[in-house]
Design goal:
With about 625 residues, this protein is α+β, with helices and mostly antiparallel strands. The chain has 11 helices and 24 strands.
Length: about 625
Amino acid sequence: MKNLEQKDLGQNQLIEIIGRGSMSVVYKAFQPALQRYVAVKVLLQHLDPDFQTRFQREARAIASLQHPNILPIYDFAQQGDLSYFVLQYIEDGSTLGSLIASGALSTSATLHIAERLLDALDYAHQRGIIHRDIKPSNVLMPRSDWPLLADFGIARFVDESRQLTPAGQTVGTAAYMAPERATNAPADARADIYSLGVVLYEMVTGRVPFEATTPLAVLMNHVHQPLPPPRSRNAKLPVAVEQIIVRALEKNPDQRYQSAAEMRAAVHEALNQIKQERHSGYTTIELPPDDQPGDVPPSPLVWAPQSRTRLNTGFLVVLALLLLMGGVGVVWALGSGGAVGPAPAVAPSTAAPAGEATAVAAGQTTAPASEATIAPSAAAAKPTPIYQPTALPSGGSYVVQPGDTLSAIAERFGTTVEALLAANGLSDPNRIEVGQTLIVPGAVGEILPLGTSTTQPATPTQVVPATPAATVQAAPSPVANGLVAIRLEDSDWQGGYRRAGGLPYGGRTATWIYGSSTPYGTMRASLELRTSPKGQAALVIEGMDSEGAPKTPIRISINGVVIYEGNNPLPDDDLPLDSGTWASHSFSFDAALLRAGGNDVQIDNRAPGAFSLPPFFMLDYAEIRYSAS
């Protein structure tokens, strides 16, 4: 293939070659329209047309995968006789292979990584997609406890696998290949289980189970030679962990774990056993020293210069990465706010129609009259400067303490249980939790106005609707203690990340806010009120925090006034992909912050993390509640 440096491929200006493999060449490139660097992986021209067809089919397969531990594809295209991927670009990315090269990993670290990889595989397998080339160099490690499974470049839909691989040919890496694939026998998702078993073996021993001078000899060892017990190479390895690895490496697929979900359950049980024994001080299995998962922060991410202007909700860009095939070095592609130079404007985004918003008075299923409107913005608004007001006076909200009951709280504040239930969107008076924040509507008359700040709030950016604003209906007369709820769906928020096509996660659609150094660090919603509410109000958010990491530090402001800054109180996502761990939390604030006319609600992720990596926050919907009286 001719050198394409300093040439254009689509919208990509190819700068320099950063990797080569037997199937591709990878270039560092720049996209002027989006003012960012990317990696462009170009398929070698000498490959036959069948391979190019397979390349296109596999790209579509990869694009259908949306999982926090699978790196998505950003784009792929053809220009003339060239086929290419467009990937995220990251410098000095680490892989699981580089971690293993520094020595065997601890047991807990191995199990934590295995759990997440098995989650990813289970997700892909349920969609009929197998990886076929699982190995340490295809597991990206931006942080020591967060694997990203990459290079599905030889993945295929399971029901097409035999048709797309000609007889006598195999794809994959010999050291990690399942016996049935080494003999070109029919293979299914259980071949991925075997390959991951080899990876786990290497993680805990520092070596692959079978070594030889030629790839063919390695393959024959997988087929014919007995497995060297992992504990023969690491005597401190817990027996339970060895049993997991041995079962994954059974030569007969029927004797292995039959699914990634089954293996994940075994890994989870072993991990819990280790934790319990460490806490109890009683050990039935040998534990290696310093057996805690690492907590090394992600490698520094360098973004191309970008404007801090946020993207509209309809701008659905999947920033993605595919590790290079055939032994090419590790290449990432991301962006950062840390680049030197002026910040050019972000390319125009395509606004999606704002979802219809609804508001109901508490206790009502319908409410006829118009009270407020959701006003979608025609263009992303510049973030409003925020100032910190004086603390809210006590009495307007209350944090549940041990031993509290709803009736006792109502009596303490001179209100009723029914009013507390309505104000907080609760149905069961016996279900309150320690640490939960409750709005106390009966105390509103006793609350002093919010203290005056010496710093004047910035004037919120005017919201100019691109289309007629969706009308939010509210009750014309007080019902259920006169409370009004204005609902903001995930699609009403600008600036956050939404999955392409509105695909659900955990059974729901959501908007994500990732680290502050990404284009998705802030989400904002706008609404219009006909009157100015008084008394006490609340913002109720329904969502989840990220999993396996410290809580996401968030900041919530209304019309430029911070009403909350601290760790996200919502539960962690423990990856039940069918249902999620969605929950709600209420934040109390002075209703005087809301005004007749335009209002802005903003949520910021205060962590500097990267796209698709914790800590992040998922919002399903939010409600603003206040008294109509």
